[in-house]
Amino acid sequence: MAVNVETLEKLERKITLTLPVESIQSEVEARLRKLARTVRMDGFRPGKVPMSVVARQYGYSVQYEVMNDKVGEAFFQAADEAKLRVAGQPAISEKEGAPEGQMAFDAVFEVFPEVKIGDLASAEIERLGADVGEDAIDRTLEILRKQRRSFAQRAKDAAAEDGDRVTVDFAGKIDGEPFEGGKAEDFPFVIAEGQMLPEFENAVRGMKLGESKTFPLAFPADYHGKDVAGKTADFMVTVKKIEAAHLPEVNEQLAKSLGVEGGTVDGLRADIRKNLEREVKFRLNQRNKQAVMDALVAKAELDIPKSSVQAELDRMIASARADLKARGLKDVDKLPLPEDSFRPQAEQRVRLGLVVAELVKANALQATPEQIKAQVEELAASYEKPDEVVRYYYADNRRLADVEAMVIENNVTNHVLGLAKVTDKKLGFDELMGNQ
């Protein structure tokens, strides 16, 4: 087999392969003979179908298979001999003008790039930190109390106020005509919790039991109901029930209801702190990891294979379709999802993957079994039965592979932070959690 390797442009290469016609024909004949021993055809006993009949029926498909196999073997053998790291699948086409008794093929493909990572000591990275204060624990307690609140009927002459649950009948019209979704009976909502548009809440706030009111309501231009978006409706609302909220006291009973071991308030606060600190650690890790990866990519020089980008685009679009389907959208497969809207992210993912792989290889940052075990145990710690979660991960190699990827990212993050110029910045709890 003669091999010729050409560099086309950047990462694109071409190998010209020549194969003896005789070797292809002999393999086709061997496969047809093997097929003849088992093939079933009307009018013939099993194993007694003449070769001429088998060849006429299956010759083309067998020859196609043999050609694919032989050319594929020749290509990967040639690429291996040339020490080429092939990215994606080659595009193979038959070439005219081959010597007598030979068949020639051109295989055009891409190779993985050489990755050059600059001096990471000159990289500047802002590392974020945050603490869990008593005020954060207090606010979380209030959320837990609100989740367990009860409602009780208020006095007949009481006016509805923020935090009350009101039950109303309402009917709306636009230009004197009713519209879909504009009418309801015995509809409950809590004032000042954003369930209704502000104009609706403002109208009900201060009303008393049995009272009715008519008011205008302007739907926002970006309102989810397209038929009414940007239009003004006239609503009539009648208050049928007003209930005041009652939050449970912060005491041992609340602690026990939340499953706190020991059932004490101090235990409850400690449990909340532990959970908040776990969430803070996760968010800080994600943001600091992203800062490291951005700095790492900025210090790297490489071309990215088009085939790898296309494979990532295909994965992203398939994932987007699956997500839309899970949300209940119909005919998702027919929905146009332009590749260009995914391309920048796909290119960034491929670039980052190649850079990280190079850094891991050059600095022995692979995940150790001990690190994987520790990561699994940390993930399992937040569950009620950690041992079952650990077994869940170790029962599936794909789940373990996901954990291994997390560990490698952590190793890379720590490695880069150990080399770079790092500036520490403290964030407030609310700023980190996105509560501002």
The total of beta strands comes to 13
Number of domains: 3
What is the CATH third-level topology name of the largest domain? Answer: Trigger factor, domain 2
Helix fraction bin: 40-55%
- Gross geometry: elongated
Return the CATH architecture of the largest domain. Answer: Orthogonal Bundle
Give the ordered list of helices and strands.
EEHHEEEEHEEEHEEHHEHHHHHEH
Name the average pLDDT: 91
As a whole number of angstroms, the C-alpha radius of gyration is 34 Å
Largest sheet at a glance? 5 strands, antiparallel
The tally of helices reads 12
At the first level of CATH, the class of the largest domain is Mainly Alpha
Q: Which regions are unreliable across 5 or more consecutive residues at pLDDT < 50? A: none
Name the beta content range. 15-25%
Q: What class, by secondary structure content?
A: alpha+beta
Amino- and carboxy-terminal Cα gap: 68 Å
In CATH, what is the homologous superfamily of the largest domain? Trigger factor, C-terminal domain
Describe this structure in words.
This protein is of the alpha+beta class and 436 residues long. The protein folds into 3 domains: 3-111, 2-Layer Sandwich (Alpha-Beta Plaits); 150-246, Chitinase A, domain 3 (Roll); 264-433, Orthogonal Bundle (Trigger factor, domain 2). Helices cover 46% and strands 23% of the residues. The strands form 4 sheets. Strands 7, 8, 9, 10 and 11 form a 5-stranded antiparallel sheet that branches. Helix 9 (369-380) packs across helix 11.
